[in-house]
Amino acid sequence: MIDRRNFLTTVAIGSAAAAALAACGAPAASQTGSAANPVTINYTWWGNDDRAERTRKAIALFEAKNPDIKVNGNFTDFAGYWQKRATEAAGGGLPDVMQWDLSYLRDYGQRNQLLDLSTVKINTDAFDKSLLPSGQIKGKTYGIPTSTNAFAVYYDPAKLASLGIAEPDGTWNYKEFNAFLAEVGAKGNGALFGGTDYTSVWWMFNVWLRQNNIEAFTEDGKLGFTKDDLKKWWNTTADLRGTPAIISEERFTQLAPKSPFGSNVTGSEVTWDNFMASYLGDSGAKELKLVPVPSDDPDNLGLFLKPSMLMVASAKTKNKDAAARFIEFMVNDPEVGQIFKTSRGVPASKTQRDGTTFEGTDKLVVDYEKSIEKYLKDAPEPPIVGFGTLEASFKRISSDLNYGKLSVDGATDAWFKEAEDLIKQNA
Amino acid sequence: MTQSPTLSRRSTSPSAPAPRKSKRSGADARAGYTFLLPWLLGFIALTVGPMISSLYLSFTNYNLFEPPKWIGLDNYITLFQDERFLQSVGVTLSYVVFGTPLKLAAALAIAMLLNSKRRGQGFYRSAFYAPSLIGASVSIAIVWKAMFGDAGPVDQGLSFFGINLGGWVGNPTMTMPMMILLTVWQFGAPMVIFLAGLKQIPADLYEAASMDGAGPVRKFLNITWPMLSPVVFFNLLMETIHAFQIFASAYIISNGEGGPAGSTLFYTLYLYLRGFSDFRMGYASAMAWLLLIVVGIITMIFFKTSKSWVHYSGDSK
Predict the structure, then answer these.
(1) How many domains are there within chain B?
(2) In which residue ranges of chain A is pLDDT below 70?
């Protein structure tokens, strides 16, 4: 019988059994570095399997050339990457060398988490002088760009041909681009959507702002555009939402973290040109092509070269010299260029670029960046503190818009509220 | 009788002087605390310490990198103007209110099935417990996502019966049922406790009831339920607290974003996003303390109401 005294025993026995069984499922502790003679540095990056394989090769090459240094590699996907870095930074345990994104350079650089790379020996002679400032904040160099990327529209020529749609030449305004998406969606007959909602991508919004001669952020770290600008932008695809021109948000969510274009469900995609390698790998397509983004002003495409990623070191690294040598190797060595081709973007260092042979689709990426050269404007400065959060909420709110949970006006208000709150918070 | 049973058992003679007794009990306490020490140190260093510092942080603006800035009650006030916060409260409450009773019902039903004497009971018990063993792991959340995705087994199975819901993962109205199914499936822990409770109900009560012509429903309502009520109460309490803390499966199924359209934005997930994605650890700490307080209040309400429906044998009621 269960009375007050043996009730606890009953429960305790049951719980103990459950706990003992549950304990069997606990994960094993992660391994730490080797105790061998060479110094070990930790390197972490985000990316897919393709990048992991290439990075593994680059690390092996580095270790062969530098027998006194061992590199411990580790990678995750983009979203999880930043949560992990935040946890490490809070505990003072950031990896020695990290692949970095412009969006988060201020968050960590201004808060003294990153090493000022001008204090160590890294040769940047081979870099375009207009590009280096994008890794610098207030006179300190926190990141060295590995490569550049630019915005572009991808399409799969084979898929368009099978639907009987002419290949675009990239001279289009938004109306024509929307018509293209609608045509692919209509002829795709449920199996192929036109594309994703390109207004949900922050950087495409940024391109559009530049086409209208608006800077996204003012110099004192405030928003440079108004609610009306954002409303106008999100209304650009208002007629396409819910039609086959744009993939439904349900499907989009199901496919994540894979992209719809890489999964062969859309006929086009607006994004960075260095996604070529991963799209080819994911989709298995024979060939993908790149054309410029739409613009209502044919002389101003709003395009710019952005450092697709930067190499940074932790301010607390105990192996500054080894970290610097690894960074220098990753950004300058021609053989590293041969390994990555354009999968990180077009190599930023001339030494590395000239030492890399670009063929096939890699050549398409390089040629694309050459073809838009005359339209290019200066690279953007590192965006404001907390930009990564704003970029993520831009995507999230756009998704609510596509689910029909928010109107364009409601979405605009929601984003501005979060943005203003964040800017106030970090002021 | 002034002596406690323990002391009277240990005392060599009833006339032993009073000071000796307290000396002995002091030695007992010392030994007790010595044995408790390893756990106590861990508890203070790893639980109490961080809790106190998080209480402090909840009154500050803290971004993980720079020293916290005192802002008083601002975090707590901002919380109630934050639409995402209110959304996360709604999501979590509906999960607790619908998920917990369903899970307990499943656990009790299976425990009653397993309580009968049949061949191979050991096997069945292990088999039914297995989902809970692996249920909290990352891999199961990934499998769950695949099962409920587009053209996954669930979608295909339902299509066979003419129900076309499409994938559940991307559909904001179907993610909550999916999450609740995941927790119901992990009924193992409460089931084991129910089983232990059922075993303690004397068989003669059922025999007597059978003699009086009571059917299975009658037996359940008049014998099993009241006799088991302390265990039901314990399970209800534990599972409710547990449900409030759901994190890992929601994090994995929504890629750490709480989507689609915020439908899996559970309280702890939003807390985590605020702390580690947005670097607002003060805000996250305030959320954590609010959760602690609310769970504490709910527990208190459970205890208050338990007097009317939980029966311990030997009590007058």
Answers:
(1) 1
(2) 1-36
